[in-house]
Structure formats: structure tokens, C-alpha cells
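testing teh design pipeline on a random one, pls ignore if ur not involved
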């Protein structure tokens, strides 16, 4: 089992910044990918960003490229999502996800989420 706990969400004005954290624990040895998925009210889930723990590969959705940065702290088993220049369309529940190869569409574990509201 893997546990993912998100934090750092909140309300911010357009153009502002937030940093989300995902603290992972449990049997992490097979989870090579940690990512962030968001879901706005009435919309489908969207894979936002992912980072692979072997190597430095990252992925960003076109909607957040240049504004969001995903990073990891292996010592703390924590993955961060730095979100800058936030827009109202970034408003959503943000979930941390984990997977063996892919963590945005073949999700093995999902956190409970943290709400981000941009006005």
C-alpha cells in the first residue's frame, strides 16, 4: 500500500502562486512515477504534471507549461508542484497520484486531494 497526502492548496488571486506538496509513504519501491491530476467542477480529470523517480524526466500538460514546475525531494519522499501565474481556469481539486510506469492515466494510488481556488 502507498499513502499520498496532499497539502498546500488554498485561495489565491489571479496571477498569484501556490506550492502543493505530496508526502508519500508506504511501499514506494514500485512506484516510479508521481504526478498531479486535477478535476474542476463538472469537468473531466486532467493530468497536470508528472515526474519519474528514476532519472529526471518530467511531463506537463500544455495548459500549465511554463507556469507549473514539478520537483521531488527523495530524502523526504515528497513531490512538489510549484504553481505560478495562476489563472481562474486552474481552479480545481488537485490530487497526487502514483503509478509504476505512468501516474496520470494508469494510476495505482490517488490522494484525497487539496482544493485550489483562483479568483
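output:
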Amino acid at each position: 500500500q502507498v499513502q499520498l497526502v496532499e497539502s498546500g492548496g488554498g485561495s489565491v488571486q489571479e496571477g498569484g502562486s501556490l506550492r502543493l506538496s505530496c508526502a508519500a509513504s508506504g511501499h514506494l519501491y514500485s512506484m516510479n512515477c508521481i504526478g498531479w491530476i486535477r478535476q474542476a467542477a463538472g469537468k473531466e480529470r486532467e493530468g497536470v504534471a508528472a515526474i519519474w523517480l528514476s532519472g529526471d524526466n518530467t511531463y506537463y500538460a500544455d495548459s500549465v507549461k511554463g507556469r507549473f514546475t514539478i520537483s521531488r525531494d527523495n530524502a523526504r519522499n515528497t513531490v512538489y508542484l510549484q504553481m505560478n501565474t495562476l489563472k481562474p481556469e486552474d481552479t480545481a481539486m488537485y490530487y497526487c497520484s502514483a503509478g509504476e510506469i505512468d501516474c496520470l492515466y494508469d494510476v495505482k494510488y490517488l490522494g484525497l486531494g487539496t482544493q485550489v481556488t483562483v479568483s
